[in-house]
């Protein structure tokens, strides 16, 4: 038994997405089936379609910022019922037994996490995983999140990746009152980092290459804005930040940004530039400032639920542009030009037009 699904898939690397029918497993005893209502568009979707990180598995149905309504539950499911709002983020399975899984740090599973798409689910059926640019998904309840009811649902979808990827490192490194936090890159992740940084009490500065984003940065709650292409503005913030949360998706100069950290400052990489991370002047950039360069990957499931509850309490959602799935390539093109205000979210009702076309 299997479930017929309609989605949008890339059939090879760098391909345009086209409507594609495929199957998902039937709802098992511990599974929930979600009718997908909205799915966010992450820069990682584009990176994976373009094979920037590793050889992708094609056909590829991207999408890991998934929210919708539960339409079926397995007989042993305890925490979800039909009609509930539910979500799936970037992870869909893990070994569930290792030390990190036991701490609900599933993304750091010692045996390998299973991503929501572009992976083989080695703990389930060894079949490819397919993401949220589709009308329905089946997930184990352990890997399914409760979505708050008081927030705009479409604007909640990006919390499942952009939200947790920025919330998790801010919590891990205990960023808060008394800290100067720089958010590098004001895109999908960056704008969530600004909101969380402000909510946690830090003094937030946006470091951006886009002059047009200054007024938005302030509206999002940032205290300061520095145009990184303006040497005079940059000079004023040399050696000044406790943390840089780096969300940049493209090649950039790490030595330049490290110089903006004060003694013991921490540069946290969440952005994944295709060329990797290169420090030319290790001595001056790291040792002489006793600085750290660290990384962080999305977040575990317990922490993702905690983040969703935090957003519910503080009324935090993403700033979004709602699009039809047929317009996904315009969205990708704009995302490549850093022209995202500040997350595209696909209204999955638009798939129905494809189904009936
Ligand atoms: P996005 O919306 O496209 O934002 C990226 C921002 O980076 C842009 O808006 C731009 O901001 C800045 N930027 C772009 N090119 C730049 C350059 N050459 N130099 C300096 N800044 C530049 O992308 P996103 O969805 O937020 O994703 C950001 C990155 O995080 C991607 O690499 C994605 O794959 C990665 N990611 C990682 C994780 C994780 O677990 N670690 C999870 C999700 C995503 P300005 O216009 O303000 O300069
Ligand atoms: Zn993502
Ligand atoms: Zn594990």
Automatic annotation (TrEMBL):
Q: Which residues form the Enoyl reductase (ER) domain?
A: 12-346
Q: Which GO terms describe its molecular function?
A: alcohol dehydrogenase (NADP+) activity; zinc ion binding
Span-the-membrane segments of this chain are: none
Cofactor(s) it depends on? Zn(2+)
UniProt keyword annotations, A-Z: Metal-binding, Oxidoreductase, Zinc
Query: Organism's domain of life?
Result: Bacteria
UniProt similarity note: Belongs to the zinc-containing alcohol dehydrogenase family.
PANTHER family the record matches: ALDEHYDE REDUCTASE
Task: Kindly provide the name given to this protein in its UniProt entry.
Answer: Hydroxyacid dehydrogenase
């Amino acid at each position: 038994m299997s479930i017929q699904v309609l989605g949008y898939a890339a059939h090879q690397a760098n391909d345009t997405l086209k409507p594609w029918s495929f199957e998902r497993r039937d709802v098992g005893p511990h599974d929930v089936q979600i009718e997908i209502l909205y799915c966010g568009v992450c820069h990682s979707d584009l990176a994976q379609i373009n094979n920037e990180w590793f050889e992708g598995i094609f056909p590829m149905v991207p999408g890991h910022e998934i929210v919708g309504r539960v339409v079926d539950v397995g007989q042993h499911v305890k925490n979800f019922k039909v009609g509930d709002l539910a979500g799936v983020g970037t992870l869909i399975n893990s070994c569930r037994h290792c030390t990190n899984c036991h701490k609900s740090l599933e993304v750091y599973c010692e045996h390998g996490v299973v991503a929501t798409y572009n992976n083989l689910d080695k703990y389930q059926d060894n079949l490819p995983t397919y993401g949220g640019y589709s009308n329905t998904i089946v997930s184990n309840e352990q890997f399914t999140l409760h979505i708050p009811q008081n927030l705009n649902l479409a604007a909640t979808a990006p919390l499942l990746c952009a939200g947790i990827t920025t919330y998790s490192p801010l919590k891990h490194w205990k960023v808060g009152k008394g800290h100067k936090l720089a958010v590098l890159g004001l895109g999908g992740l960056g704008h969530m980092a600004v909101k969380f940084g402000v909510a946690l009490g830090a003094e937030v500065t946006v470091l951006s290459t886009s002059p047009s984003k200054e007024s938005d940065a302030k509206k999002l709650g940032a205290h300061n804005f520095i145009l990184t292409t303006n040497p005079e503005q940059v000079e004023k913030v040399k050696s000044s930040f406790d943390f840089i949360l780096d969300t940049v998706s493209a090649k950039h100069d790490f030595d330049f940004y490290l110089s903006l950290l004060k003694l013991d400052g921490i540069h946290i990489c969440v952005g994944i530039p295709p060329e990797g991370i290169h420090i030319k002047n290790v001595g001056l950039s790291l040792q002489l400032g006793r600085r750290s360069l660290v990384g962080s990957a999305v977040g575990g499931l317990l922490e993702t639920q905690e983040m969703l509850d935090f957003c519910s309490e503080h009324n935090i959602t993403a700033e979004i542009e709602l699009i039809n799935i047929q317009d996904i390539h315009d969205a990708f093109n704009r995302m490549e030009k850093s022209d995202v205000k500040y997350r595209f979210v696909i209204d999955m009702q638009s798939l129905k037009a494809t189904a009936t076309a």
